[in-house]
Amino acid sequence: MKERLEICLSGSGGQGLILAGIILAEAAGIYDGKEAVQSQSYGPEARGGASRSEVVISNNTIDYPKVMKTDILLALTQTACDKYVKNLNEDGILLADSTIVTEVPNISNKTYLFPITETAQKKFGTKLVTNIISLGIIVGLTKVVSQEAIQKAVCSRVPVKAKEVNEKALLLGFNIAKDLRTKK
Amino acid sequence: MNNQKNIKLLQGNEACVEGALLSGVKFFAGYPITPSSEIAEGMAKKLPKIGGKFIQMEDEIASMAAVIGASMAGLKSLTATSGPGMCLKQENLGFAIINEIPCVVVNAQRGGPSTGLPTKPSQGDMMQARWGTHGDHPIIALAPSTVNEILTLTIKAFNFSEKYRTPVILLLDEVIAHMREKVEIPAPEDIEVINRKKPTVPPEEYLPFKPDEDGVPPMANFGEGYRYHITGLVHNYKGLPTSDSQEIDAFIRRLHNKIEKSIKDIIIIERYLLDDAKIALIAYGSVARAAERTVKLAREEGLKVGLLKLLTIWPFCSEEVNKLAQQVDLIIVPEMNLGQMVLEVERASRGKCRVVPYGRVDGELINPIEILGKIREEIKK
User: Fold this and answer.
1) Is ipTM over 0.90?
2) Within 10 A of A159 (CB to CB), how many other CB atoms are there?
3) Which of A107, B110, B189, B203 is 20 to 30 A away from residue B365, measured at CA?
4) Could you tell me the CATH superfamily of domain A4-183?
């Protein structure tokens, strides 16, 4: 793994991106024992509007806490994809929701497309777990944190009554990642 | 748990709550405002459990008044706000200064003026912290740059406020207030907690504003039998208004001197790779972290750049900056404003080296690359 990994989770307010960032940072920082910083940028609206959550993971102390060049980009809206793909590292990875991000940018990077939101709705009857499925896919694809760490972090951060569904969503994400990898 | 370390992923605002609790805070009054609301939220959850009081007031003027009252009754008191609320607190902040009432006021800075940019960072209130309330007054203001520093400097803020009987302003910015980072929460026995001096004389001999040798008068809690008068007017040892010019002069000078003569205790700074530096960055808050990265990037290019990180903003570390100005050829001051602390840097440098501001005011944190760009641009001049 690189000394410093920068992850940008982008979309719109209400998609659970900030919570996803917190869970990822907690997995890295608390359960994998690395250094991690999570920050966010959002508008004054409670829902809608652009939202982005950034996570920096490193083996050493983290100075600059924000993303300089994205290594892993999650895009859950077209607007977010268009905006943040420009800052993707040459060897960075893009994961986009294929039903929402219809115009996939013409880039040489590794791009993974999957109907994440639609799958959440179909399998779990709610879009609320889109963020957790996304985390599962990201971890499955990149091993940015260990699977054990992300499982623990998900369980500790989601409400008790939602634990089971979120655990299932995470496992589904791992499986989707496997399929996406074999297809490549 | 294989060891006793209490490590958590905390938001900056949550770390402020933890720091305040470790300091012994027992009272919070405030009015929630982004990006400081999580401090009020945390206090509302935690204070009642330890026998403390949380009050959501009708506005920030009343919040500051309640904090003053609670502190006078003997409780360590906190309030937290952002720019628009900080404006409202100014009047009572002055009252707390003139009556030497310990309290901590957090300003999680967002873009301004007015309601400005509620969810975006800024460092536009640096001079407001110094001169926001009127009158020729001293103030202590601290500016952490990591979540861990928010915790430790919140404790410092309470300690300074109790030790010097003064309000202390903790200047956060949206980036570090909302950011989450790994924090080791210290055990209570591992931190130093300072409590205000209490009078050693009986109530009938107590002069509430008669200073000890350190310039700080012992403070009796209201309700403990020490009856005394407090007023926003300049007052004598008894706390009664005075128009005696000697008393007035001595009072105003003492307010300043009690801070000034302890400046070595109050100033907290960090030097990073400055020993051989020819170019110095001076930064604070979240921008200091960008600057630290810039130093590393610049060193890779063979540029002798170092960083002076300010943790205490007011009083300003003039002596340190003056020494630095004699050593380096150039000082660059990156800030999320169009030039506030750079004015102090210029003043302290006394023309010994070139001092250049670098400001960003678009609601985004300054990044290391642009500071590096500024260095390259300036060394060509």
Assistant:
1) yes
2) 7
3) A107
4) Pyruvate-ferredoxin oxidoreductase, PFOR, domain III (3.40.920.10)
